[in-house]
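fold-stage: in
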Amino acid sequence: MAETKNILFFCDEAGQVADEWCSVAGLSMPRQVAGEATKDLARIKAELNRNGEVKWVKAKSFNGKIQRAYINYLFDQIGMGRMHFHIRFNPMGEYNHNLSGPRKRIDTVSKSFYQLLLHRAARHYSKHHVVVIPDDGDCTSALPDQLGALKYEAGNKYGPNAYDCIQKIQPRSSESEPMLQLLDVTLGALASYRNGRHLSASVGIKRELAEYAFERTGWPTITGNCPAYARAISRWNVTPKIHR
């Protein structure tokens, strides 16, 4: 990734309700790259004559052409060292959600976001100034109030630079943020692949796109973990410390 002090870390989730594996992911890039990518995605949408929010759930429309274009764009940017992608898979059936908090499953997902920020954003970008931009919603609503705790824990685990690196947590609507839409498509595809949803005969083009997204990761498997030092693209399958 280019040398810069200012990093944006976009994050989102997929599969909170029905999937065996809930997925949370982060897409990081220099602020300048985000501005350039916004223009690139607007051009792609114009070329494909597409309007409105681009999402994984809409992949059946127009044979998934815009979703394939977004998957290609994200992995091309990673290949050029302009973006990093981190995904965390959480086995929801193995958690005791009653211990997560009063919102139960929502608080389990919220804690997963917190761990993603601690062990990916703070760990890997400790020499930068990081602004975290989650997709707004119930699962991310508590994160801004947890910034102090996050800083404290990051400093204890990864040193004083990690304490100072995350400057703000600012939830934002994906409807108005193209980088969250870019993240949503690949996150949705890989979440589908991890849960085996792409194998259903009813999903059509989504099967092809999920398999294509996984192929572009270059991973030998969707299970297991990438090395902790992996930054460009990392996979993290969680083993809960507290089970049902």
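fold-stage: in (second)
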Amino acid sequence: MSAAPPNDTLARDFVAFSVQSGVLRFGEFKTKAGRLSPYFFNSGLFDDGAKLARLSEFYARRLLASGLQFDMLFGPAYKGITLAAGTGIALAGLGRSVPFCHNRKEAKDHGEGGLMVGAPLKGRVVIIDDVITDGASKRESVEMIRAAGAEPAAVLIAMDRMERGGRDDNLSDKSAVEDFQSQYGIPVLSIANLTDLMQYLRSNDDPALRTHFSAVAAYRERYGV
């Protein structure tokens, strides 16, 4: 369910925005799994007000376009905190104001106390984050939401790498996103994915960007789902 619809303008615009912002880069990068990837998506580089505002609008528009029924947003600490808040602001700007909250890494034992900050968890909750690498933080989020008596409705991420896990000699059949969906029965939405990235490279007017297509295609052939 993470795949964007064919000819998805929102996905194409997001990939272009990510490249222009220096968030999506091409070259040779070592991933958490130890692979040498021809591209790297670093959401931490959406690092000023203008970039964050536009990023948040992409999240909000993807969520509204999905048709998903939801009541509030949840941002896993730490990156998800800013992303959920920004998405909430963008949704309000588009005419849909919803509550949001986030967790702390460690429970606070003074003041308001507790592990959560913001609106109480209730109803159908969308988890907002940048990517799913191994799914650990999303699983923790699901457990917290369910423990509060609320229902995790979906996970919304910026970029789905559509990449199989495991070692080179023992690759998994599914990606981290597919594993998460299979385990929890919760849909994962993405603003864009590897297919969108490849379409952007293949059709780009910039010859320097087009030169990266073959490396990305080879990487997908080896590790993609």
